Amino acid sequence: MKKIVLLVLLLLSATYTRSYADSLSLSGEGAILIDSDTGQILYEKNPHKKLHPASTTKIMTAILALELGNMDDIVTVDEEVVRLTDGSHIALEPGEQLRFEDLVNALLIESANDSALAIAKHISGSIEEFARLMNHKAKELGSLNTNFVNPNGLTHEGHLTTAYDLSLMAKYAMEIPAFRDIVCNYTYTIPKTNKKTEERYLKSANRLLYSNEKINVDGVSVPIKYEGANGIKTGYTLAAKNCLVASASRNGHNLIAVVLKSNGREVFADIHKLLNYGFNNFEKANIAVKDQFIENISIEEGVYPLVAGIIKDNLSLSIPKGSLEKIERKIIIDDDIIAPIEKGQTLGKVEYYLEGEFIGQVDIVSTLDVEKIQPMSIWEKIRERWYLGLIGLFILIRITAFFIRIRNKRHRRSLYRIPSSFH
């Protein structure tokens, strides 16, 4: 849960949209391009339009499989899984036993609908309950317009999502090491089982990983295989048309592109255009550095009047190439900072702007503990101000001496006074 909360906070604080292309001439009806590390939106087209996701649904199925399942489990396929299977499959049979790991690979590489159902039933006991988990997880990740009815993406009028929501799911999924390890592959072999005497050889439909077939990208014929591509998932139904969620990395710059409801192989051209746009126009830049000194901050009622404020975490963002020097920062210190203060406590923030547009922020934290000044007892006050006592005693002695002199003087006068009876 903490990971999810941090993810949502990161998206809220660091996400912005910066597009320099009015149109990339995309075939898909819905599309989005994000920085997969920060969640920044770099380009979007109808990002919140509800569309059928087809087998890109299996990204969410895999998330739950990897978080709730055990790769070493042995799964026994039941009759319902076989009966409900339609479309792409690996010919599972009732009573067949497979490793859970093999089913997850079949889910993501072969896009096997029967594997999706088998995984759902193994984790939740029923397809309906698994769909409920899918929707709950989607909302946790910040999805706004998603409703899943099944784990495989077969067409249902209520089974809908958006390019934006899918980008959140893909970003989260790519943070799971096992997910990354699977989707970067395009082949997999399932060994013999109690029902199959031969191995099953699987191959991904994500041709971005391997295909030398040519497509037209902005008038240029290029291979479908994309430099730096490392996932994620294709999808197709008559209602959804061609869908693709793709990821790619170049020089430490990680992007995710989503295209929904495209036409045939144009979905690969759409992805090329999105990724090219991201890599050609943006660069990854270190905006803030952890432990960088910001300023000395006043502390009220503390044993120290000031404490050094430093940046809590690194901040790395996708920014337009050549714009690093244009970034401006705004330092905001919290009002009325009163001791006690703990080391690492947030005392303010630094906001970063590019051409007046907010692009991200980091917290300013204390470098040390600052205890509150404790009120002194009367004896402590006396001990602390001993010199005042000496001064007071000196003044008292002088006053006493003054009055003694006056008294003595009056006494002497009375002794020398001649009584009136002698005159």
Give a brief description.
The chain is an alpha+beta fold. The chain contains 11 helices and 18 strands. It has helices spanning 2-14, 58-68, 79-84, 100-110, 113-124, 127-140, 163-173, 177-183, 266-281, 378-384, 386-416, and strands at residues 30-35, 41-45, 74-76, 97-99, 187-190, 200-203, 214-217, 220-223, 229-237, 241-250, 253-262, 282-288, 293-298, 306-311, 315-320, 327-333, 346-354, 357-366.
End-to-end C-alpha gap: 114 Å
CATH class category label of the largest domain: Alpha Beta
Task: Give the number of DSSP strands.
Answer: 18
Structural class: alpha+beta
Any idea what the radius of gyration is?
36 Å
What number of structural domains do the residues give?
3
CATH superfamily heading of the largest domain: DD-peptidase/beta-lactamase superfamily
Query: Would you tell me which CATH topology of the largest domain applies?
Result: Beta-lactamase
How would you name the oligomeric state of the polypeptide chains in this document?
A: single chain
Uncertain runs are 1-15
Largest β sheet strand count, sense and barrel closure: 5 strands, antiparallel
Q: Strand order of the main beta sheet, please? A: 2-1-11-10-9
